[in-house]
Protein: Trace amine-associated receptor 1
Amino acid sequence: MMSFCHNIINISCVKSSWSNDVRASLYSLMMLIIFTTVVGNLLVIISISHFKQLHTPTNWLIHSMATADLLLGCLVMPYSMMRSVEHCWYFGEVFCKIHTSTDIMLSSASIFHLSFISIDRCYAVCDPLRYKAKINILVIFVMIFISWSIPALFAFGMIFLELNFKGAEEMYYKHVHCVGGCSVFFSKTSGVLAFMTSFYIPGSIMLCIYCRIYFIAKGQARSINDATQKLQIGLEEKNGISRSKERKAAKTLGIVMGVFLTCWCPFFVCTVMDPFLDYAIPPTLNDALIWFGYLNSTFNPMVYAFFYPWFRRALKMILFGKIFQKGSSRCKLFLE
Structure:
């Protein structure tokens, strides 16, 4: 028997028809994703905040991105979980707009951070001797400010001014809108704008920059045995910069970017295509793609743990409570 989210049946959204076993499985899986996301990103934030050796420009960008991922896990995923499993929204229309805006903002903030991280790595690998002079703490704070402010203005402006409906109001209110629901809806114009702003343009910039970094790092690797190159490496190490370290960092952050693109690409492609297909993509598929995108925030700390020895050492100190010891913040996690 069909059940509804609201007592007025003819305007209500329809509840999910899944059995209790299926619902329990979905809740368990999503709660595991939420828990892993929150704990993983919290450990990244604690590590970078506590250990003074990790107070570097790149790490402050990673810290800010981990904060966005943590907030996504705390503020967005729990409500999305209930909506995805029950197909109902029990928290009111105003909170639906706040939730949708926050979701878009934090997802967009991640790719903005990754764009700036790619720029930071480009300077570190391509111009290492002048890197510290060009990428100082003020430049990093400007990057972080832009990474948060533009997605916030874009997301909250679009949802609260209802610009996402523009050009498709009749279609939305006649065929999509129902009481007790909270779906993300885009018209053709707003869908293309969201796709270009939040995904395509910054993603293309990152790919171009990482291609450049890759070819430069490859060239450095080929000439690593050359005597002149050895002299240059010695000079760089004297200035506190190691090209081999920077190449490894660039490779790691490239993998972080690849994970992001893999996770979010299906959702953004469906978002931009759906209005042109007369909204033929099933809501259940959209929900699944949103959660596939959320997995990016879950995977990022795992990438750090796998590729960064400093994070593994910091993690051990946190888990064994050694960070509460006097002077622990000055511990050397890696050789500079």
Observations:
- The mean pLDDT is 85.
- The longest helix spans residues 188-222.
